[in-house]
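Entry for zinc ion complex. Fields follow.
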Amino acid sequence: MNCPKCGKEMKAGYLFSSKDGAFSFAAAVPGPFENAKNTAGFVKITALKVGGRTSVPACCCDGCAIVVLSYGKEAKEV
Ligand SMILES: [Zn+2]
């Protein structure tokens, strides 16, 4: 895919995490004792992955320092 900022071809790969946790998106980052799912605009990006690295397909533009990711099947399974 092409970068939404500069329009050049982006590097394809995966955005991945440390060996615990999962990615989500929301209007604000919830506090450590809040239920993240109650945050305004909550979108689950990945499921928790026990014993492995959470990852999601993504494209990266080094020049603009932008990562574009897509989510779908895995996030909706759990
Ligand atoms: Zn770019």
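NOTE: The pocket of zinc ion is lined by residues 3, 5-6, 8, 61, 63-64, 66 (CB under 6 Å).
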